[in-house]
Write a structure and sequence with these properties.
Helices cover 21% and strands 50% of the residues. With 151 residues, it is α+β, with helices and mostly antiparallel strands.
């Protein structure tokens, strides 16, 4: 009887150890990875060149749900999150907010897609990235339009 009790107790200790290590692993991952929300403003200057500036940023603990990929952007902005040594941590590609596309009724009464080019717009990026992210580099099809400190 004592032998059976000792075996059961031993199995229980092993099971609790495994469960505790799994929980600790998830907690350590949450401490290393955070979600960052970056609010930006993009604008064109008098010469038509685009530039981007930081409005604000917020770091929160958590994990993002997996996102579906959508159609390719026709006027993309590539947003790269970099650490202090310029190592790439995450990349997001979005449609340039200065190039709006929407549906409207044409003069014939059918639905037509219209393109509008803005001089200024605000947008938000969100991604899961380690707290070691130091910079955000934003580029369009011509080149880099902004490097923003995340510290």
């Amino acid at each position: 009887m004592q032998m059976c009790l000792i075996k059961s107790l031993f199995k229980l200790i092993i099971l609790l150890s495994i469960l505790a290590s799994c929980k600790a692993s998830k907690r350590d991952h949450a401490l290393q990875t955070k979600i960052i929300f970056v609010n930006l403003r993009i604008a064109k200057d008098d010469s038509g060149r685009e530039h981007v500036e930081l409005i604000d940023k917020v770091w929160v603990t958590g994990e993002l749900k997996k996102r579906e990929t959508h159609e390719k952007a026709t006027h993309p902005l590539t947003c790269e999150f970099l650490d202090a040594k310029d190592n790439l941590l995450a990349t997001i590609t979005i449609q340039n907010p200065l190039n709006e596309s929407f549906e409207d009724f044409s003069s014939e009464g059918s639905i037509a897609r219209k393109q509008v080019t803005l001089n200024e717009a605000s947008f938000t990026l969100r991604t899961e990235v380690s707290e070691g992210a130091t910079y955000l580099k934003v580029s369009n099809t011509v080149g880099t339009i902004g490097i923003i400190s995340l510290q």
